[in-house]
């Protein structure tokens, strides 16, 4: 028996407050946009890790829990990393004697402030994962591919245009 | 003219093929880079002491009830450990990502050792395996092999389980001797505390954890729980008893168990090794 944990996470742009700034009886509501991380933990059987303990550790401080909570009944949990603490954030999810530790790199706030997905740190990007494997082409590769396809079309057109002997 | 056009097409088609292959090769999955030069503990750098322990958990120390109702207690549970390696990795090694462990620094326990996970009383601490001088830093990966012991009480076997099983008034002494070789690579410890954080001049724990409930199941968990649906239980072993006692090795298991039960047994072995609650990748038996 192998209770492997599938662990996936995605990034979401969330609003700390959905309401526009408003005034009512001297109360001020402000909002700002923040980048949050939503993760989902589940067993290899695809059963969600419902109500599992979640411990979040900020970069450079692996001993003090930065935030803790529990997953919902679908094994989901979200949090908003402090973008002023760039580096590798660690998230530990534990339930019934089984646990998983995953890492999420968060970029410096001066370089955009949004966490960057690094699939290598994701435990298992299976078919039901919320994150897709890293299969994107580089700009150079994409250009070569497009050029090859166009050149192929030209060659094909010339072939059919050559007529019969 | 037409012949030239046809040549042009042929060249273009070949060009497409070559370029297509090149680009598809460039988009393959995770790239494994060459290992960096490993550092070892030296007198020049700041070092501390890693205390490497092995833990069979309460299932082994206190006994437990199997999924099929047998009360199990262990007299001895020997595991033969070799090539124990603690490593600092950045980014942290993820054993379930299918990538190779790349260490920034690592230390090894040179000698193979046989550890009795059942040593001590019910509240015994995890068994000390070795103390190793190591460079200060964050040790967040652990690897080890389980090989047939070269000497000692479990000579010839990587795992030796000896104890007593009791059910409905029947008591069956058992000795199960496993000679399959296993190798585990694991990431960071997952548990109540963080381990492997070594500061200069100080000590830090690391732990190889063994989940033998995966083999026998857990009577305290629901029957449909994954810990039980994938477990062998003790009934198939009890059926191998002769003169009221089970004494069987790997060859005897293969010969005596049903094909389904034997395959279940083999499939469980790679899941025995953990780091606390964190899972490991088994890289020997699963690839043989």
From TrEMBL, chain A:
* Residue ranges crossing the lipid bilayer per the database entry: 143-161
Superkingdom, natural source? Bacteria
| Keywords, comma-separated and alphabetical | Membrane, Signal, Transmembrane, Transmembrane helix
Q: Signal peptide position in this chain? A: 1-24
Q: What is this protein called?
A: Nickel transport protein
Q: Which organism is it from?
A: Phormidesmis priestleyi Ana
Automatic annotation (TrEMBL), chain B:
Write out the entry's keywords from A to Z: Signal
Q: Does the record bear Signal in its keywords?
A: yes
PROSITE patterns with a match to the protein in the record: PROKAR_LIPOPROTEIN
Signal peptide, first to last residue: 1-26
Can you tell which superkingdom this protein's organism belongs to?
A: Bacteria
- Protein name, UniProt field: DUF4382 domain-containing protein
Organism classification: Bacteria, Bacillati, Cyanobacteriota, Cyanophyceae, Leptolyngbyales
